[in-house]
Amino acid sequence: MSTRNLDHLFRPTSVAVIGASPRPKSIGSLVMNNLLHGGFSGPIMPVNPKHISISGVLSYPDIASLPLVPDMAVVCTPPKTIPLIIEQLCVRGVRAAVVLTAGLSRIEYTEGVTVTEAMLAAAKPYGMRILGHNCLGLLVPGVGLNASFAHTSALPGKIAFVSQSGALCTAVLDWAKPRGIGFSHFISMGDMAELDFGDVLDYLGSDPQTTAILLYIESIHHNRTFMSAARAAARNKPVLAIKSGRYEEASKAAMSHTGALASNDYVYDAAFARAGMLRVYEFEELFAAVETLSRSRRPKGDRLAILTNGGGLGVMAVDDLMEQNGTLATLSDETIEKLNAVLPETWSQSNPIDIIGDAPGLRYADALRVLLEAKEVDAVLVMHCPVAVVHPVEIAETIIELAKEKPRAALTTCFVGEEFAAPARALMGKANIPCFDTPLKSVQAFMHTVRYRRNQEILMETPPSMPSDFHPATPTARLIVEGALASGHEYMSEPETKAVLAAYGVPTVETHIAKSPQDAARAADGMGYPVAIKILSPDITHKSDVGGVILGLKSREAVEEAAHNMLKRVHEAYPNADITGFSVQQMARHGHAHELIIGVLTDPIFGPVILFGQGGTAVEVIKDRAVALPPLNMALARDLISRTKVSKLLEGYRDEPAADIDAICLALNQVAQLIIDIPEIEELDINPLFADNHGVLALDARIKLTSKQFDGDSRLAIRPYPKQLESKFTMVGGEEFEGRSVTIRPIRPEDEPNHHIFVSKLTPEDIRFRFFGLVSELPHSQMARLTQIDYDREMAFIATSINAEHGEETLGVVRVFTDPDNEKAEFSIVVRSDLKGTGLGHELLRKMIAYCRSRGTQTMVGQVLSENRRMLHFVELQGFKVTGHVESNIVEVQLQLQQSGA
């Protein structure tokens, strides 16, 4: 993940075309024509040894003959020529290339080396960025750049479109231009040999000319860099994705319930949501998303009012809204009174607001003005179906004028019809108001903005703290797992699995192991009746399918008979199965308990994922499930639960009490932490997990192991809380703080409440020195950004101690934000005003310097108010040097972290 040299690619001042050609319809000819007619103001230099000029431009025989070093080169030559061309470009000083040629990964360059591999080997020493290969090229309309062989150009705009499919690129270009929709960047990624989604998202996420990013994704190569970049970009602007290949038959071959339920597409859904992105599913919806993002104002909520001149049209829109889990605004008495004052008596008196088919522009304007001012309405959908008495253009002109009065209004329009309605839709487009031709498209457009806002709210929600008594016995669990691996077992036995879960605090039903039917009967006598018995075999995944589970046995004789019959059935179904005995369990409470499933599987792209849903033997038939990426917290766990149908039952209904949701959330977090700590766990099923108002209980569970070796937490798509960075420090100085023990650790989302208290205890001067201005209180949105960090590119160490009266409190914080290239980390530090002189600030900064050094960061920089002499002296003691003034009253300090050449 890097943005190095991407300005050369996306904002070049000169371009060379290697393989430019005068041959009509050749790639080299199309690229030259597009560059020449796109409005690009810099030099365009064709390279072709066979021609003196191409498209009227002087041609050069080779790269060495170019009169200047181009910022970017477009390469459209045969595959086997490309590695040498890339090397020559690098030697000349070119740092960005667009490789249009296809098939490089399938052609051998030298023995055992593909053309792609040879191309990358040539580029790597020079840091050259390569877009493609096998791509359409790129367009940056704002600078007149059309370095592609597309059949048409793009209008300038604020949306970036990034696609792995060249065919989809041309379709979107063809669709967008007549609708007046423009783009800041139009990028065909191709095979992503070097430049991938993470790099482009990092660049576009901080690009001021881009207000929204739209992705078409076929596959993701680097999960963690994608997630990190997508999360950073989505915090700044909407990021939408359409993912192809939603149905995969491969999941049917999975050995566990979790594997069969959690298809790869569900995992992509979870990844996009966790990054704060919005997913769309269909080609038309993709276009609707572009329309919405380019023209709509974001609503402050999800309550929609529908204004229409046709009752049936309004009902269709409501159906579409309910289908997508939208919210129809309930009109207040005050709003209805205001509408009564301006509408005929025959209006619908409810939402949708049907103002009758003959409604002229004035009636639309009067009703719309009331709705836009209504406190219970967050957005308005204005619909019109053709009638003979009023032309749609009149309605469109009225809406446009009113929108000028209310520029912040969240407004979507729908003009149904073809020839009669087309001029009205064209007017709306020119006025930059989203407009559609069907109720479904209109509602989808509104729901895009709602889902984006919801995703952001979920990600910024402050999670409750984990229970203080959650202290997993990781060494115990690891010993059990290592023992199973040493025995050559792919699947852990039920007792081993439950012991691992118990080590992480997941309540499990008491279980005894019996070698024979007689042993099972004796075990049942010892624990009391009724009991359940289950077959134990590493070769049988789903015990119920072969009659390997018998419940409610009430006597010794019943247990022994059931065990004998079970052995007979299993031997008939699986004659070669290794039967190791039986598990005997006392029948767990039923009553009001719900059967749930918590599972883990390892996705080939995103690594371990957590599954939750309705459990039991019919789990694969019901298919009520949701998935999430670890790590979790209590808020994310609650969101995971809410995305299932069984969540409604868990809330309680009729005489059924609500289940203990906190206990379920804790179990999800315990499982998430388990797979973070024990990478050898490849799959896990807890099914069923009983849940009622008393808590949870795991009745049956299974773990599949892998002997693969992993480098730390590299298999996870999101870097988890780095517990290994926790340390202790003892403060010095002053009677009150001398000898006081402090924990210095990475910040967590749960720290937000304490962080508010910490900021409130800073003096006005310290606040001004930290934030370069007076801040009375940081809003939740800003505090969430400070506490919910991406450990891959940010770090914040906080100092905490236990206050006898208030519990844990925050004493100080140091943080860095590192650029995607890991070259520069910008730091800030503040310690509670009454703790200066205790050595805490020095310890925090020393710890951060050591951390950045260990990650290979080149430089730490910070900005300090010139008058803050104490801070300047403080950082100078740590080796920082003043490098200059950023502004008249702000200086920059810098610390070189790596030795020269390191």
Automatic annotation (TrEMBL):
For this protein, the record's InterPro entries field holds: Acyl-CoA_Synth/Transferase, Acyl_CoA_acyltransferase, ATP-grasp, ATP_grasp_subdomain_1, CoA-bd, GNAT_dom, Ligase_CoA_dom, NAD(P)-bd_dom_sf
> What SMART domains does its record include?
CoA_binding (SM00881)
Q: Which GO terms describe its biological process?
A: tricarboxylic acid cycle
Q: Gene3D superfamilies recorded for this chain? A: 3.40.630.30, ATP-grasp fold, A domain, ATP-grasp fold, B domain, NAD(P)-binding Rossmann-like Domain, Succinyl-CoA synthetase domains
Q: PROSITE patterns from the entry?
A: ATP_GRASP, GNAT
Out of the domains of life, which is the source?
Bacteria
User: Boundaries of each N-acetyltransferase domain copy?
Assistant: 742-898
* A molecular-function term among this protein's GO annotations: acyltransferase activity, transferring groups other than amino-acyl groups
- Keyword list, A-Z: ATP-binding, Ligase, Nucleotide-binding, Transferase, Tricarboxylic acid cycle
SUPFAM superfamilies (alphabetical): Acyl-CoA N-acyltransferases (Nat), Glutathione synthetase ATP-binding domain-like, NAD(P)-binding Rossmann-fold domains, Succinyl-CoA synthetase domains
What's a Pfam family in this record?
Ligase_CoA_2
Domain annotation ATP-grasp: ranges: 498-534
The protein's matches in PANTHER family, at most eight in alphabetical order, are given as: 3-HYDROXYPROPIONATE--COA LIGASE [ADP-FORMING], ACETATE--COA LIGASE [ADP-FORMING]
What protein family does this chain belong to? In the N-terminal section; belongs to the acetate CoA ligase alpha subunit family.
UniProt-recorded name of the protein: GNAT family N-acetyltransferase
